[in-house]
Amino acid sequence: MGTAQFATRATSALLASVLAGALGYASWLTTGHAESTTTSTPKTDQSAEEIASVAAVKIRAAKADYQRGRWDPIHFKPAIDFAKDEACLVCHKEIMTDKPRASSPAGVKSTEVEAWYQALSTYSGQQETFHWRHTQSPYARQVMDLSCNFCHQGNDPRERSPHVTATNADGSNNSSWNNNQPAFALRKTVNVAETCLRCHGSYPAQRMGLDGTWPKIRADLESAEIPNGCLSCHAENFRTNRHQVTYLKADAIEKLAKDNSDVCYGCHGGRAWYRITYPYPRHAWPDMPDETPDWAVNRPTQSDARFRLPEKKQADAKPADAKPSDAKPSDAKPLDAKQPDAKPAAK
Question: What is the pTM of this model?
Fold first, then answer.
């Protein structure tokens, strides 16, 4: 076969392939895509809460393929705000059953090395997956009440963002994050600046007038009689009105912190993923100084609306220096008896 004849046949084959692809795409547009749109789009009389219900999600999931799943209305506002974990797990249940590798590709066994999150005394047991550690570990269930939509505020496939961050007619941002700012600080479609950073920021030593890292400082502040050096300042003097948000169990945190500074340091530098610190709201506390430090200027004075506790719960909340009760918080999930308890504080 000559070169010219080979080129002609190759060109014909390429054109035939392109034509077949075009016809297939056209068929998808007129049939499959239309069906997908019909399946995923809720009835106009359905509320966002009904769209996000477990029953409705199961019905849509039974007919879904990958594209229908990506564009399911539960992944968009306002339905995502009503989504319960049970609804999310209809399609994403593998996040609760997956396990880490038993060994690395190089042959290093997970039982012979320590992961970074195993370094603090508040974690015990073998290595586990990201989602399990945040929602199912004994310690997480003691001190947190995280739900899927705490981090996952939706997933717009067009922008790979939790939100469509378009602009309004007047040029202002159209986003539901703080101060209507664009939501593009992303990691796997999660706005880390408003989720992960809350518990994985750096240790703010300079803002507290301290010199050095907490592992170095704590030796001068702690003893057998004072197991948590953080409370040298934070028991009565500074930031005593804290943790009053829906995703934390404030009473349990305060009780555990009396005997272990890793309870405090774990979320304030001990598990740092970032070099910056989250700009926490400055809730007023008793005898709070009138003068605001430069680094705290323009800080909000209350938590985000979606994490704010009902007023009654805030009024009933104990001050940080109240004597802890031996009873479990009313909203605490029972710990799995099969899981190991947290390690005692390191002395």
Answer: 0.73
Count of other CB atoms within 10 angstroms of residue 248:
20
Query: At residue 129, what are phi and psi to the nearest 5 degrees?
Result: -75, 165
DSSP string, 170-184: TS-B---SGGG----
CA gap 15, 32 in Å, rounded:
24
Three-class SS state of 167: strand
The 3-state DSSP class for residue 305 equals: helix
Would you kindly state where each structural domain of the chain is located, as residue ranges? 18-97, 102-152+189-347
Q: How far is CA 109 from CA 102, 116, 246, in A?
A: 6, 15, 38
Q: Which residues of the chain are under the pLDDT cut of 50?
A: 6, 18, 20-40, 320-347
Contacts of 263 (CB under 8 A, 6+ apart): 122, 143, 228, 253, 256, 257
The helix (H) or strand (E) run that includes residue 191 is: strand 190-191
The Cα 127–Cα 115 span in angstroms is 7
Alpha carbon 108 to its chain's center: 29
3-state helix, strand, coil in the chain (%, to 5): 45, 5, 55
Predicted confidence at residue 320, as pLDDT, reads 47
| pLDDT at position 164 | 60
**Which tokens go with 13?**
């084959």
pLDDT at position 312: 63
For residues 287 and 285, give the distance between their C-alpha atoms in angstroms, rounded to a whole number. Answer: 6
